[in-house]
Write a structure and sequence with these properties.
By secondary structure, the chain is an alpha+beta fold. It folds into two domains: 151 residues, NADH Oxidase (3-Layer(aba) Sandwich), CATH 3.40.109; 96 residues, putative nitroreductase (tm1586), domain 2 (NADH Oxidase, 3-Layer(aba) Sandwich), CATH 3.40.109. 38% of the residues lie in helices and 23% in strands. The protein contains nine helices and ten strands. The strands form three sheets. Strands 2-4-6-5 form a four-stranded antiparallel β-sheet, with helices on both faces. A hairpin with a 4-residue loop joins strand 9 and strand 10. It is globular, with a radius of gyration of 18 Å. The structure holds flavin mononucleotide. The site of flavin mononucleotide (FMN) has 22 residues, from strand 5 and helix 9.
């Protein structure tokens, strides 16, 4: 499937995590558009699927008032599912889940990825999960309240969500001013990707016609960092495509994640 580069490039610039939603499920028309997109995009990878749930988010969310993860108002949500034994399932979940997020932004829907503060057992009461499937994450969906609540401002400040590491920090050998434009745009677009607690675990190595993404070596749950990397991979590809460069991903062995190869 061809990624809608221009539309998603705009969505990357508009997107930010919302934790204070109007108390409403998605409008039928908007939900319909997202479901149509998911039916198509769920075929992108074998063993990976994103399910739309119209209502019930508040029953599965387990944030506490004032803490990271408290999501007000949202009722609709997405469930990111991976079949056991799917290779690179975390990266693929990140990639496909973020595709749904960017498509949602284009429709006018706000969102927040949630990997911590929810109960998997309660999600399983609301949708049918196959025996060989894992729930990897959920994504709250809704319409942002105009005025940001103080608690959301506090969370954003704590996780410094507006802050992103510089490309100098993220690229193995720093930034080279001679890089072609597509490389610079691809990296800048990846840099804006969301990640759990804004940790930005991805690092990049640029060589001729290739960009490798790998995880910085530090403690922490690796599966989730891989999911973050999958999100950055989608952003990177959107940036490359927006600059007119098509490419494909080749998965690598730990600790490297994958390599984007220009075609
Ligand atoms: C994989 C993933 C998991 C996340 N989990 C949570 C979560 O459990 N609770 C929460 O409030 N925010 C969560 N977030 C949102 C991040 O804190 C947010 O994306 C990050 O701080 C960057 O801010 P931004 O999305 O506004 O650019 C998650 C984001 C990602 C990508």
């Amino acid at each position: 499937m061809k990624l809608p580069a221009e539309k998603w490039f705009e969505a990357v610039k508009k997107r930010s995590s919302v934790r204070n939603f109007l108390s409403a499920k998605l409008k039928e028309e908007d939900a319909g558009k997202l479901i149509t997109f998911l039916e198509l995009f769920n075929q992108y990878y074998n063993g990976i699927r994103i399910r739309y749930v119209n209502t019930g988010f508040q029953e599965v969310a387990k944030g506490f008032i004032g803490s990271y993860g408290k999501i007000d108002g949202a009722q609709s949500y997405l469930v990111c599912l991976a079949e056991k034994n799917t290779p690179h399932k975390n990266e693929k979940i990140g990639y496909v889940g973020e595709a749904a997020v960017l498509e949602a932004v284009s429709i006018g829907i706000s969102s927040c990825w949630i990997t911590g503060t929810y109960k998997k057992e309660d999600v399983a009461k609301q949708i049918k999960i196959d025996e060989n499937e894992y729930i990897k994450s959920i994504i709250a969906l809704g319409y942002a309240k105009k005025k940001t609540k103080l608690s959301e401002k506090v969370i954003k400040a704590i996780v410094s969500s507006k802050k992103r590491k510089s490309l100098e920090e993220l690229c193995e050998n720093g930034v080279d001013s001679n890089w072609p434009n597509w490389v610079k745009t691809a990296l800048e677009t990846a840099r804006l990707a969301p990640s759990a607690i804004n940790r930005q675990p991805w690092r990049f190595r640029v060589s001729e016609n290739e960009i490798t993404i790998y995880i910085e070596e530090k403690l922490g749950k690796k599966d989730l960092k891989k999911l973050d990397c999958g999100i950055a991979m989608l952003h990177l590809e959107v940036g490359a495509l927006y600059s007119g460069v098509k490419g494909h991903w080749e998965y690598s062995l730990d600790p490297e994640i994958a390599k984007f190869v220009k075609e």
